[in-house]
Amino acid sequence: MRPEILCLGEPMLEFNQQPDGRYLPGHGGDTSNCAIAAARLGASVGYITHIGADTFGDSFMSLWADEGVDTTTVRQVTDAHTGVYFVTHGPEGHQFSYFRAGSASSRFGPDDLPIDALKTAKILHVSGISQAISASAADAVFAAIDTVKSAGGKVSYDTNLRLKLWPLDRARAVIHAAMSSCDIALPGLEDAVQLTGLSDPDAIADFYLGLGAGVIALTLGAEGTLVATPDDRRRIGGRRVEAIDATAAGDTFDGAFLSRIVAGADPFAAARYANAAAALSTQGYGAVAPMPRQSAVEAFLQEGQE
C-alpha cells in the first residue's frame, strides 16, 4: 500500500547547541520533519528526496525506518553529500547556519520524480524551502504539484520563507505561483507579512484564499492559528507550555494538521490538534526528538477539557 501523504524536500543533519555549549546531533529539514511528525501521529507517510550515500544519509535512512516513514522514493547518490545545519540559541531565539550548497537534494530535478507514487498520493506536502534550494528543485516541485493535481490528489504548501536561500522578490514570485495550485495553504504569520505586504491575519487569509486554496491555516505563534475556508473562519487558540526550543514547531504543526485531514477531520479540528502537537514539540531540544506521539497529544488535549 502506497503512502497517503508524500513529502518532498531536503533532509539535513542537525547540530543543535545545548546550554553547556556543546552541539547535539539530530535530524532536520522541514518536510522531513513534517513526515516524521505525521507518522508519529498515525498517518501513512512517504518521503521523496535524494541524499548522499554517506554516513549522514545512512542515518536518515535508519531514522525514517524507525519512524515508519516509507523510503521507497528516496535515493542515495554517490556524487553529492547530505546537507548539514547548526542551531544556536540566544536572547532573540534560535538561529540557523546552513551548509547545503551542492547537496544531493539541491540537485534533484523533475526527471527524478516518482510519478507513479505521486499519482496515488492523497496529499503532497512541499514548502518554500523545497523550491529555494535550487532552480531544478523548484521546477521539480511544480512538476510534482501538476502530477498530483492531475491525478485528483491535494497539495499542501508551507511558505517557510528563508531569505538566506533566495531574494524576497524571487521567493514571492515562486511561492505565490505554487500557492495558486495548492489546496491547503500553511503560511506562518511572519512569512506571510513579508510575502504579501499585509499585516492583518484576516487580510492575509483572504489573499491566499484569493489565490485558490480551499483551506488556509495561518499560524500565529503562541496565539494559535487562524483557519479559513471560503465559507468559514475561526481562530483556534494556542496551547501554553514552558517552551525550551521552537525548532521544527511549525513542521510539527504541518504534520499533525495533515495527519488529521487524511483521517477525515475538518480543518478546525485539525488545527486544534496541530496546535497541541506543536506546543508539545517545543519542550525539548532539536527538531525530531521532542515531536509528540499520538497518545501524548490526546492526553494534552484532554487536560484542556478538564
Explain how this protein is built.
By secondary structure, this protein is α/β, with parallel strands linked by helices. It has a single domain (5-240, 247-293), classed as 3-Layer(aba) Sandwich (UDP-N-acetylmuramoyl-L-alanine:D-glutamate ligase), CATH 3.40.1190. It is built from eleven helices and 13 strands. It has a nine-stranded mixed β-sheet with strand order 5-4-1-8-9-10-11-12-13, with helices on both faces. The chain has a four-stranded mixed β-sheet with strand order 3-2-6-7. The longest helix is centred in the middle third of the chain and has 16 residues, at 135-150. The radius of gyration is 18 Å and the shape is globular.
Topology readout:
Layout: E1 5-8, E2 12-17, E3 23-28, H1 30-40, E4 45-52, H2 55-67, E5 74-77, E6 83-90, E7 93-99, H3 115-120, E8 123-127, H4 128-132, H5 135-150, E9 154-158, H6 168-179, E10 184-185, H7 189-196, H8 201-211, E11 215-219, E12 225-228, E13 233-236, H9 249-262, H10 267-281, H11 294-303
Parallel strand pairs: 1-4, 1-8, 2-6, 4-5, 8-9, 9-10, 10-11
Antiparallel strand pairs: 2-3, 6-7, 11-12, 12-13
Helix pairs in contact: 1-9, 9-10, 10-11
